[in-house]
Amino acid sequence: MQIELTEEGKRLADARLNNAPWRKWGPYLSERQWGTVREDYSPWGTAWEYLTHDQARSRAYRWGEDGIAGISDEKQQLCFALALWNGQDPILKERLFGLTGHEGNHGEDVKEYYFYLDNTPSHSYMKHLYKYPQKAFPYEDLVSTNKKRNRHEFEYELLDTGIFDENRYFDVFTEYAKNSAEDLFIRFTVINRGPDVANLHLLPTLWFRNTWAWDGASEKPTITADRMTDGLKILKTSHSSLESYYLYCNRPDILLFTENETNNVKLFQVPNNSPYTKDGINDFVVNGHYECVNPKNQGTKASALYRLKLAPGETKVVKLRLCRSESLSAPFGPDFDALFLQRKQEADDFYLKVTPYQISEDMRNVQRQAFAGLLWNKQCYHYNIKKWLDGDPAMPPPPPERKQMRNHEWPYLDAYDIFSMPDKWEYPWFAAWDLSFHTIALVMIDPDFAKNQLILLTREWYMSTGGQIPAYEWNFSDVNPPVQAWAAMRIYQVEKLMYGREDRMFLERVFQKLLLNFTWWVNKRDKEGRNFFEGGFLGLDNIGAFDRSLAPPSGGCLEQPDATGWMGMYSLNCLQIALELATKDPVYEDIATKFFEQFVHIGDAIDNITGEEEGLWDKENGFYYGLLVNPGGGTVKLKQDNLAGLIPLFAVATNNASDSVQFPHYRKRFLWLIDNHPEMLKNIANLEKLGENERILLAFSNDVKLVKVLKKVLDEEQFLSPFGIRSVSKRLLKEPFSIYLNGKEFTLDYEPAESTTPLFGGNSNWRGPIWFPANFLLVESLQKFHYYYGDDLKVECPVGSGKMLNLWEVASNIAERLISIFLKDENGRRPVYGGIEKFQNDPHWRDYILFHEYFHGDNGAGLGASCQTGWTGLVAKLIHQHGKFALQQKDSRVIEGERIGYI
Question: Which pTM does this prediction carry?
């Protein structure tokens, strides 16, 4: 509740109560619309090749827009972003460049340096940094050199080209400050970091998303020059369904106008609809083609051109203002710069309330940028599957093959919402299980947005008629781990704790839809009706010896410890939600009983499937392994020491001490099962053993199994890295897992960095690196076990150290290792940047944080997508918890109301 006392908290309250539309404008512009499935109208689904980066400047998009440090209204009708030209590049820098899926030696990858430095949930203050080289951008060099490298070599990055040598680049800071919900102050600060005088063309650009070309019925909007004086030029917008806006430009050299229309002559050698096309401003600035811009000062795309000349170290500032007011007398008066200072101070106050603990400035900086990245990675996501499959009336019909292409079985999916994206370049589309992790950090700063995100994917225009939640754009029918119930309960708990609001309506609303999804899982992924689940790769991509998204090479089916573990966790999460709802509505007590029984049956299956004494639990190795069920009978246990075998640990919860009194029907059924089916219950821990405060443990792993698993997990020669838990045991480096199936050898070894296999495009690696989502769930699971066992259960951590820790201390140890990836070590170096000296030593680089997709299993260096603050943003939650408990040296049991593990 304290957080809402800040000015930012008041804005969020106004937005929640519909008093002011503070969320109407935000960083909702994508950073890559080209190469996406939405824009792919090819016969065979070759999205990367159908609309390329080279075509993007000349081709109007159908479903969205992209730009650098951009903003838009919530329906992405009117967009604003930054464009740049250094006088050397062959094209304007209007969008970020990267390699396509087939160009990189480790898959697609952005090849730019940009940082999300600050943002508030209402977007009242936002700050972004883009580092723009002064020499010609090495497009061809990046493509050709990466193509020559194999999967065992490092990627060729922009720094490797030498283009930043002698600091010959510009720092371009973009800031937005909202004077009111629809009055945005915009400030660009450009600094010449190089040793010589350098020229820069800066082009703040305003444009309408093209909605008129596709059906011929939509009215075409306009941008016109409203008034122009020596010091002030104003752009006015007119749109049939959007209010008029005015962009005040302070002292630009010139205004340039064109149309956001495809250049058909250039791309397809057919006539253009207009002499002015999407690339008109590019051709004017770069090539001097004056005829490419409209001399009548009107169009659907317009730029204010600033020609800047900067001495070494010089700073220049460009000011603009986007608002609804048409006659401001002094749009850039003294209040302009003062507002940025005010909004920045308000952001400081807000985030200090979020984490009011004595953490280091370095740690606070990491957390602040993690939150900023989460908020900058919002995007307006628009995609109507039926229209996409059918094509548009004013366009050539799509090839008939599209009717059977990807996502054709989702014709009802009609997306047009603001989503939290994994990142807006490599993954500019929602991903179901990623999104759940995003909400755990987002709820700390914006519970309303976090709740909205979780509800969205369960709405009828997203969820399938059978109850499946769409996975991600490349294949909505893929199966992601079912973590939505976990996220829903955590959102509910965190909002209650931090804001004092108990949103039972949210919990009930999402729970009712999750009941459908749970049923879908039972019907579709438990093929034999044995409470044992399959799920394919389940988000863990290439974690196994063979591709788990396909049928096993020898036929049959793969009974997965992770799929079954996820479903056990799902059952307990639903049980927890049902009991919470039952405190006010007894109807939910019966549903809670059903999920308890479901958990018991799954627990029996994971330990007793196919009549084997130990099921997926391997007593000899002390680990959970997959079971390959052959088509002709018989089974093969796949003894792969990977993260899939840890996921059964996530199925853990304890009861609240008051449950037996508060829920008598639930307790009666609980005791009936103990009396009548003890053989089923013995495998999910000893229910007759009471823990602290007479709690009962529900878990697949009792203390014996847990200790055995942790002996592998906490061994630094196996899973335990200095920076978290590896996704594959390091022991596989010297002793790879190998199996022959259908006459072919399949192998899994330890790969701490980028993948050397072509599975899943080669840009994802669960064969050794550290991933935040799985680590975060393990940390929480150990905390839950500690809630039951207390100090009675201690394990050696690390193995061989002689140091015995309780499970809360083990969880804290893992969390601190994860946090340390981003912090300066004793030598002032951040593990996330490995051996990249520019990031380690340069004062203009070293404190800007990139939140990578995953991290090197041995040294913590960042890998994969470089700006995937999505689930890596979980570090913000870990830092908060670290400040709350570890730094205050408080045992978790001391503080009431903060427990996460009971049901």
Answer: 0.96
